[in-house]
Structures are given as structure tokens and as C-alpha cells.
Amino acid sequence: MRVFQVDAFASAPFGGNPAVVCLLDAPRSAEWMQSVAREMHAPATAFVQCGADGHDLRWFTMSVELDLCGHGTLAAAHVLWETSSTASSESLRFRTRSGALDARRTDGRIELNFPATVEEPTAAPDGLVDALGSTPVYVGRSRFDYLVELADEDAVRALSPDFHRLRGVKARGIIVTGRPTISEDVDFVSRFFAPSVGINEDHVTGSAHCCLTPFWSRRLGKPRLEARQLSSRGGRLSVALDGDRVRLAGCAVTVMRGEWVES
Question: What is the pLDDT of residue 85?
Fold first, then answer.
């Protein structure tokens, strides 16, 4: 079984978000995939089962299976094109726990077509504000995550959350966002914390931008936006709201190739 490590939402090694991509040679159980993901120790491990009418795709962190994963999907698409499993001019369709997801190549980048996950205003749950250590301007809740808007980019950068306390917030993760003050070439910035699924801070989170895109599109009155995630590795995304879908575009680079050996 061929295995690849890819830096997603990055144009050079050591940036963006690492993902392992496993091209399955046969169907495998969820328990086996979870064991491989723990062994790989990456923020996400994507498992692809190729078929004539599309590709089955599943994503695992070191502790849980995910319902939606942007950087794992981008990495999987990158590997399929790079290994010539699919012609470079063809679009890809993945069957996932979040329905059909499409990927295509455009302008030297990979564009993903994902469902929008629009947030609704809500009260901050117990412990969230104290765990973040900052006062929100706005709190919303999407299908997966809480979205917290802070005053500006400076406040987002300054966060040093209490991850032990944040783990008690009942959600996949917490998206924290704000208007740019330093990053003048983007429309908004964000960070993503998900200790409940074993990731204290994710490097670049495509699925979080399925919520951030409609949120900032409404506020700024524009369907196309540029975004930056302010993790230690950092990442840049181009996003667009398209009805009830979100288009996410970014680059990817393979940093390792190998094979899984079983006794």
C-alpha cells in the first residue's frame, strides 16, 4: 500500500498542514484505519479507495474519524494527480461522510467544492471565554464548531488558550477569527483549536473555512475572499461562497513517499 505525506495549503515544504494519504489496495476496517492514523501521528490521515465511478475517502486524526477534512481532501487529490491515478485534466469526485466532494485543478492550485456550514448566533458555552482568555465580539455555532470573532488580528494572534479547559467545550473545535491588522493582503484571519479530537491547534483547516466563508462574505459583502490561518506553520487560502457550497483553493507539495509493510 502506497503512503504519502503531503503539506497541504502550502507551496513549499514545512508549511501548511501535514496530511498522510494512504492509497488502499483493498477495503479496510475503521479499526485498522484508526490504528494506522495513530502510527502515522499526523494531524490527519486520509484513506482513498479508488473506483471507476469515484473514490471513497475517509479521514482520521490520531484519536477519531472526522466527518469533514479540507486539508486531507486536498492532499488526497494532489496525490491522485501526482501518481497519475487520474488524468490531470479530470475533476475528482470523492464519496465521504459529508456527501460528494469535488476537486479540480485551476490556475496552478487545487480547488475543493465543499458544503457550507453556516453558523447561528449563540451564547458562549460555559468555560469557553475563560479557556480562550479573550472577550468575544461574536459567538456562533455551526454543525461542527463554535465560531468566535475577536476584535482584530492582534487579539487572534495573542491567544494562548488553556487547552485542558477548552477540551470540555462540546464541539469538534473552536474557530477564532478577526479582521486583519497586519496581514493587509487578506480579508480575514483565523486560528482553529480542536483538543477534543486530539489536535490542540490545527495548522490550516479547510473545513473551518466552510463556516468562515459565509460568515465573512455576509459581513464584507463579497463572495470571494482571501484568508490566512495564523498557526505556527501558517497557510493561505482563496475561498468563494457559491450558494450553499464553498470553494476552497490552495497548493500542496509531497514531502515523503513510502509503502505500508504488514507482517
Answer: 63
Strand ranges (E), 10-107: 17-23, 44-51, 54-60, 65-66, 92-96, 99-106
Question: Which pLDDT belongs to residue 88?
Answer: 66
Kind and range of the H or E run holding 228? strand 224-229
The Cβ of residue 13 has, within 10 Å, a number of other Cβ atoms equal to: 13
Same structural domain for residues 146 and 40?
no
Does residue 110 lie within any of the structural domains?
A: no
The reported pTM is 0.91
**Distances from the Cα of 95 to the Cα of 54, 65, 67, 114, 256, angstroms:** 7, 15, 12, 12, 26
Residue bearing cell 497557510: 235
CATH of the domain at 56: 3.10.310.10
Domain count, the chain: 2
* Domain identity same for 98 and 124: no
What pLDDT, in 10s, does the model give residues 128-153?
999 999 999 999 999 999 999 999 99
The reply to whether 56 and 143 lie within a common domain is no
Short-list 217, 206, 224, CA closest to 74: 206
CB 215 within 8 A of CB 225: no
- Under a CB-based contact definition with an 8 Å cutoff, are residues 8 and 46 in contact? no
**What are the b/e assignments for 200-225, b being 16+ CB within 10 Å?**
ebbbbbbbbbbbbbbbbbeeeeeeeb
> Domain of 206?
120-243
DSSP summary character for residue 41? T
Q: What pairing do the DSSP bridges indicate for beta strands 145-149 and 173-178?
A: parallel
